[in-house]
Amino acid sequence: MMLARFEPLRDLDRLTQQLWGQGSVRAASVPMDAYRQGDRFVAHFDLPGIDPASIDLTVEKNVLTVRADRAAPAADDGREWLVTERPQGSFTRQLFLGDGLDADRVEAEYDRGVLSITIPVAEQAKPRRIDVTSGSHDQPAVRAAS
Q1: Burial class (CB in 10 A: 0-12, 13-18, 19+), 125
Q2: Which residues on adjacent β-strands are paired with residue 5?
Q3: What is the Cα–Cα distance from 72 to 27, expressed in whole angstroms?
Q4: How far, in whole angstroms, is CA 140 from its chain's centroid?
Q5: 106 CB contacts (<8 Å, ≥6 apart)?
Q6: Model-level pTM?
Q7: What's the mean pLDDT in 75-95?
Q8: Cα dist. 39→45, 60, 94, 101 in Å?
Q9: Would you state the pLDDT for residue 134?
Q10: Domains in the chain, please, with CATH?
Q11: Going by DSSP bridges, is the β-strand pair 40-46/3-6 parallel, antiparallel, or unpaired?
């Protein structure tokens, strides 16, 4: 597998939310779908209500980190909140990128609350054909796939 999830505090967050309710400042997880399509991997992250300017995407030592912020509503604007179930604050998700992915050519797009990240397979990781020659000049060359 070329992508791997990294969420060491996910279970702790889930337990905290169960014990003290959903009002936690930190969201348990950013929902994600990921798949391979030809020579690229694609990941879609659900980030509804996020200001695109708050999205921070970094790659360091084969770890792709997605960070985004959803601001809490103003407390002193005269509103009397009855229910506040939507998480606010900072959202973070990390993926380990395998050595076969080209971390220098990651592309990202945010549309209708979904952040889509495309990561191409590195050229050196793509299958290639290797010519095999014969030591005898009167033998025809053989072609082998790797």
Answers
A1: middle
A2: 95
A3: 13
A4: 48
A5: 57, 59, 64, 117, 118, 119
A6: 0.67
A7: 82
A8: 20, 22, 22, 9
A9: 84
A10: 3-120 (2.60.40.790)
A11: unpaired
